[in-house]
Known about the structure:
Blueprint: H1 2-25, H2 28-35, H3 39-45, H4 49-71, H5 78-95, H6 97-106, H7 113-139, H8 148-168, H9 175-187
Helix pairs in contact: 1-2, 1-4, 1-6, 4-5, 4-6, 4-7, 5-6, 5-8, 5-9, 6-8, 7-8, 8-9
Amino acid sequence: MQNQNKRKKILDAATHVFAEKGFHQAKMDDIAQRAQVAKGTLYYNYSSKSKLFAATVTGGMDEIMASISHEMESELPFIEHFRLLVSCTIRLYLHHSQVTRIYSNELSIGIDSETLDEIKKARQRFIEFISDMLLTGQEKGYLKPLNPRLSALALVGIVDSLCNAHLNESNASSSDEIINTVFCILSEGLVNHSK
C-alpha cells in the first residue's frame, strides 16, 4: 500500500512537471523534488523518463475511463444517460487538463517509439471504451446503426478540439457551453429542420 501511494505521488508530480515543462525540458530531478522522494526512488519505480512519461499519460487516461464508468452507472432515460456521457467525458478531460495537455502537445515530438506505442495503445483503449458504450446504445435501439468506432473517433475528436481550445484560449467558452454544443451536435445535429 505504501509503495502504491509513493507511485501515485510520483505520477502526480510527473503530471505537473511534464505539463509545465514538456517531455524534453522536464528533468527527473524536478519530478523527484516535486514528489518529495529521492531520485533513486524515482528510478526504482520508473527506469527512465520515457517510462514515467508513458505511465503518466496512460494512468491519466485509465483514471478518466474508470471515472466515466462509475458515473455512467445510473437508471436515467437514455437521452439523459447520453448527455451524462458527454458531460462526464468533457468535465474529466478538463479536470485532467494536465494529462490532456501532455498528450496533445507531446505525442508527436521526438518521443521514443516504445513510449509512443504505449501511449497510442492507451488512446486506442479509450476509443474502444467509448465505442463499446455507443454500440450498447445502438443495440438497444437508441442510436443510429453507424460504425461505432468511427462514431467514437468523432466524439473524442470533437471533445479533444473543444477542450484544448478551452484550455489554451483566454476567451474560451465555458465548460457548460462546450457540453451543450457537443451534446446538441451529437443528439440533434447542426441542421435546423424547422426552417
